[in-house]
Batch of 2 targets.
Target 1
Amino acid sequence: RMVHRTMVDQFKYALVWGTSVKFSPQRVGLSHVLQNDDVICLMTDDEHRPLLDESGRHHTYTSLNAYITTNDRQTCTGANTTFATGEKLLSGRYESLDYECDESEISHMEEKRLGHQHRRRLVVVKWFVMLLIGVCTGLVAVFVDVSVKNLTKFKFSYVQNKLDSCLSEHCLFKPYLTWIGINVAFVLVSSILVLWEPAARGSGIPQVKCYLNGIAVPHVLRLKTLIAKVLGVIFAVSGGLAVGKEGPMIHSGAIVAGGISQGKSSSLKIDLHIFKYFRTDKHKRDFVSAGAAAGVAAAFGAPVGGVLFALEEGASFFNQQLTWFIFFASMVSTFTLNVVTSAIDGHFGDLSSPGLINFGLFKDVPYKWVELPLFIVMGFMGGIFGALFNQLNLRLTKFRHHYINKRWLLITEVLLVAATTVVAAFLLIFLTMNECRPIKTQLELNSPTIQLFCPDGHYNTMATIVFSTPEQAVRNLFHSEIGTYKAWSLLAFCIVYFCLTCWTYGIVVSSGLFIPSLLIGASWGRLFGIGIHTLFPSIYFNPGKYALFGAASQLGGIMRMTISLAVILIEATGDIVLGLPIMIVLTVAKLTGDYFNEGFFDIHIALQSVPFLPWESEVFSSPLSALSVMSTPVMKFKTVEKVDTIYRVLRTETHHGFPVVDHHTDESNDERAGTFQGVVLRHQLITMLRKRNFISLNDCLRDYLTMDDFRESYPRHPSIESVYLTDEERELYCDLRPYMYLAYTVSHHSTLPRIFSMFRSLGLRHLIVVNDKNEVIGMITRKDLARFRLTHTKGHTSIEELGILS
Ligand code: ATP
């Protein structure tokens, strides 16, 4: 849209940007906002002169409501708000991780000093750390499992006793209220833990995905998060919510790995002075991938699935050796879980429970080729239901951001969900109170049986699902004999559980989505099987098998992971014969779901305004080049820079990387001059200031800081506010040459897709744009790339540019 100055003047309010086509919040001079749906802003330079593009038109920007509402609430009172968190925004609070090899002079010096032997030793130590990660993740999984089992057992036996005695005394409201009371108390504990550490909210998979993508999500790997996550999920699952414990295991594994590999705990202020060479983002990322994989392995008993999960999320940095490391950690994790669980269950050595979830043994599973079209139909259904689920949850999450953002509201919602879940379960039991089956068949499934209103020797089918853990419920649906569940009760259960799961994900508790999705899918899958059996009574169709494919299809439709999910499910079922149908339903479900919207976790990542880089740039055919993407002018330093200049820049700018330029060329006073020498990071500069690594002009640096000095504070580097300098010190100089590293550069002619693939495949944090004379003219970070998206509105595709919120 073209906006002329006269047009802007006509508006009572106008929004004026402080600089160039890029709108960086630090430089935005926000004055007023249009009280309109579309905010139109005029791009101006530093003197507030309108900027013109090549064709003489003004640069304009539209649809910035989100930015305005979050950044300047006061000014925007009454403005039309779209999203409180800003879907059209990238949040500046997410930093990137440093995955680049350190090529600085001091790093080379250290390598030379330590020699080749050191590299070999590191590999051995790495195997050892992987072993520890596997063992610890397995033990965490056991702890979660045992705690959930015991709490659930205590709760159900208590409620069932009350129920049994009240059946004759007609006081059913008592067990009902007891059940609500216990559930609400458990869930309250879970939500208090999450309010204590908000990073433990939800499943944690989006955060792990972001970490593997190269984003440092605040608090994601903290000990506090692990405690809140583990205890939170135990109480959430035991509190009867429609959540699972498998997703949080992936996050827990990642935290365990992040912590163990560093040999220290910043939270506990303990430093064991071991594994110090692993205190870099690059090494830590490898361990975190192994931890996430070990988490998958422990959750599903699927070590290969774990490796594939890590591979699917972080394939750009994988190599053969790392794959081995991760596979090893996954195997150790599932083995540890297996051994300890067998010991707890009283059959030590009988390694038959490799994961938290056990789908049980499938009988009569062979399928005929005539069933393949049915699997495709099921995949299609899973895709549609999954897309519907994602869409509903997206709307609910936006609603929450808007209206449920105070602590008391968050807690109220949690309590409401907990109470509603019990009410719904009770209703389901009463609606199906005459559905009884002989007890002997159920005993084979090792599942509790609840008699309720049934005659002796019989149990109530719905009560048995509702009164067991979600994992047991899934197993029941997979293996109960034909005729156990009536069609309409399955339908009722499916609808109720679908709504509950959709509502539950996102409340302030630690919660996983795998098991609830499986349960929804298993119920409609079984229903589908019953339908087929009714249509073709002469052919024998095992409804349990259809429950499995329904579960796979629903999971695929929600998550949209294909390879890892297929392998996870095959490993969890333990029957390779089912591999092909599982792959078919997952693929069809993904393709169908992708037609409507993104995968569940991708939606949540976008909602959090994370600068997540997909595999490839969406903006393919665009004429966008480095010039239109980069930030300019660049804040840079000379190779020997005055302490006062460094200090002032660090106090005023929030950037984490600064190009270092040759100071001889820079003396021309030309803004663009200065040939590129390297990049120095913010934390390095702060360490130099704190350690007083100064020289006087014309002196040369003799006391180099070592790599250990920079590692000391990893990963919580001190801020510039912690530095105090005297006036004399400010007049001294810093020699940046030994500490800077040679970052990648691109020519200003490079196109966006090319820059994008460099970022993605090399795991870059800063990319320097240079001109033909190797002079620094621009800076590109991941936020500059994540800002450009394709939007499709009313059949028209255009490039949308998001704002960056500090
Ligand atoms: P990271 O988030 O990876 O830690 P950063 O904090 O250095 O990187 P971002 O927050 O990604 O930088 O950048 C915000 C905006 O500032 C981006 O548009 C980026 O191009 C710009 N920018 C980053 N560093 C500089 C710099 N040294 N000079 C000028 N602009 C910069």
Target 2
Amino acid sequence: QEYTALKLRVKEWAETAKTKVEGLIPDGGEVYFVPATLRPETMYGQTCCFVGPNITYGIYEAVKGKEYYFISDRAARNMAYQSIMPSWGVYPKVAELLGSDVVGTLVHAPLSVQKDGVRILPMDSVKASKGTGVVTSVPSDSPDDYATMLDLVKKADYYKIKKEWADLPLLPIIETPAYGNLTAKFLVESMKINSPKDAKQLAEAKDLAYKEGFYKGKMCYGEFTGKSVEEAKPLVRQQLIDAGEAFAYAEPDGLVVSRSG
Ligand code: ZZB
């Protein structure tokens, strides 16, 4: 799997995170949350970024004294063998935090219409074993994100978040013949998905959204408006990479199995 790893720069830490990070990042150093995405063309519509509240994350030094990535241990290790970390096979960990420690942190999300930044929010279905364990949220086009957003808004107190961190307008980014320009909302409603825990139905909705979006979708927002998603995807990706706001990250699936077998 070739992902686009996006760099969401920390603007303001949540209280718990601030205490744990204090003194560990040098002056002039920036920390980035790094979600792995297969949909760079949807980045305009980011409304928040998810972490698993019970997952343990690290902050790793990626550019000496300058760039620090908030990701899973597993992702840091993989990155160390993809020339993303400063030296081959090495991934210096400067801090360890729980997902719940960083909920409420404000980050800058590249390309997002939320120019003042988006919040780090909890998502129980984030897998520690996939991508970087950090997931950027595009509720207009990702059924999982849309279902989670509804739940966060409905039970903001239970999740210990401010309702307005999750309750943001959906941005139409991609027009499709079958589902209109808010694919995730359309699918979640028409399939009567009531909770982010409806894993089976959400997986089905995700599959439908991917196919319709990729093969029939047309951009209706941003610089590539009018182009097909198939054309726009690599263009947006390259633009982010050229701006230093993203990098390629590959998931080495199957490697471990074949080595031990
Ligand atoms: C933004 C985005 C916008 C995504 C969209 C999807 C969609 P896949 O297909 O199963 O490989 N993701 C990444 N890492 C994790 C994780 N650790 N746990 C849970 N979800 C994760 O899934 C790749 C997508 O799953 C990624 O792309 C990411 O969400 C999420 F409009 O990033 B995506 C129809 C999907 N639309």
